[in-house]
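=== RUN LOG ===
request id: a7f3
mode: sequence -> structure
chains: 1
length: 175
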Amino acid sequence: MHNKVVFHAMKALNSFGFPVLRFNFRGTGLSHGEHDYGRGEAEDVRAAIEWLDREYHLPMIFAGFSFGAAIGLRVAAEDDRVQALIGLGLPVSPVDDRNYDFDFLRSCTKPKLFISGSRDQFGPRAKLQETINCFAGPKTLVIIESADHFFEGRLREMREAIESWIRDTLVVPRS
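=== RESULT ===
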């Protein structure tokens, strides 16, 4: 929730007037519960979408980073209240025993933005491009040169990529 990548994504979305909910998955930080290997965390995303819908009644953009992208994209892709998807640091090559399946994005026709660093140890460029090539359009892949998984020293470029994509791709309601 307090991760720099998540913070800068929030600032990009807020700059267009989107309300943003940042939360920790169960068992992270001060949140209750235990890590549930994606099952319970998917319920956490569903609860967040429900809360945002009750509070704001606005179309939503889902943005997730790393594990949050792997879990949240699946939930958000299936929810009609979510109009677009953003995956930051998509973990297509995790180094531990985790294995994420992104096949559900083969049929998801919502606009999708993926941003990764050229030195992302969990998303090597070739594997990332191969994976995203299989996804349904519309989709955009932005590689931030010299950035690692956490976009260290390149957070401004990541944020600008989100803002540019929103400006060029989505109809943003202004109040």
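=== NOTES ===
The radius of gyration is 15 Å.
The mean pLDDT is 90.
=== END ===
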